Amino acid sequence: MQLFIEAIKDVTFGNDVSRLFHGRGGRYQGAEHLCLDWYAPVVLLTSFKPLNEDELSVITEAIEQRWCELNGAEAINLVFQYRRGGETHTDIIKGEVPEKHIVVENGAQFQVHLLRGQNHGLFLDMSNGRQWVRQHSSGKKVLNLFAYTCGFSVAALQGKATEVVNIDMSKGSLSIGKQNHMLNNLGSGARFLGHDIFKSWGKLTKLGPYDLIIADPPSNQKGSFVATKDYARLLKRLPDLLAADGDILLCLNAPELSIDFLKEQVASYSPSLKFYEQMDNPAVFEDIDPNKALKVLRYRQETLPTTDIAN
């Protein structure tokens, strides 16, 4: 805990949503269970193990002290969330949370919800991935699989994509995704399909091919996607949806599954895809074991050479 207190003496509260402290990366002994996020105007403290009253008091006092150093008498909005497996308890410690909570990332606006469950509407460790998509979408048709609240779609359209097809079986998440598009004045160019991906290959094929496919599935969500068995099912289909020389971003956020697991799945089930690069996560998400962190791998469809019949 002392390393957490020392580390947050240097945090700042800027305009953009961000992680301020990432204990889960294992770099701070004794604070591996703690994370601190800034969803302006709210500070979110998360613990992955129970904290007694004294521990919580010491931690929140340190956060408030840093806040006062930077913001004087301005009141802090501080939320504490305890997670264990599928169990979540969330409390407002100080201040309040906006009823319509809008945050900013790289100039884009997103609606978030800190008081409902573990997923807040925007995965902060994927910010580099969204920025890459923004920079590489011009003139492209994009397929956003497991779209959630459509952060990749917003980034792609801001990057001048011609069209984005978003598909997710959660219509509630897609509804927030539509609102995210409207927040960013993106009233056209996106489709929203509230379907099971594995039952929608015909429709996705009809709407394709795609110059860029993004697959960011949950790692272990029964009824939706379990990486150990469903990534193979996904990879058998993806090359047929991809345009010649098209790119695929394959994402995996499962600490128990290595980078090699994903590479081996591609080699076995999508051998036409060539590995190009692994994207860096934001520096604050550095992990002592890269295999436990978010993994985002870029592949490209290999264009086969034309056979010279005369020879």
Biggest beta-sheet profile: 7 strands, mixed
Q: Could you tell me the strand content as a percent range?
A: 25-35%
In total, how many beta strands? 16
Structure class? alpha/beta
Query: How many helix segments?
Result: 8
Distance N to C terminus: 71 Å
In CATH, the architecture of the largest domain is 3-Layer(aba) Sandwich
Helix content: 25-40%
- Spans of at least 5 consecutive residues with low confidence: 306-311
Question: What is the CATH domain class of the largest domain?
Answer: Alpha Beta
Indicate the mean pLDDT.
Answer: 94
N-to-C SSE series?
A: HEEEHEEEEHEHEHEHEEEHEHEE
Radius of gyration: 21 Å
Number of domains: 2
In CATH, the homologous superfamily of the largest domain goes by the name Vaccinia Virus protein VP39
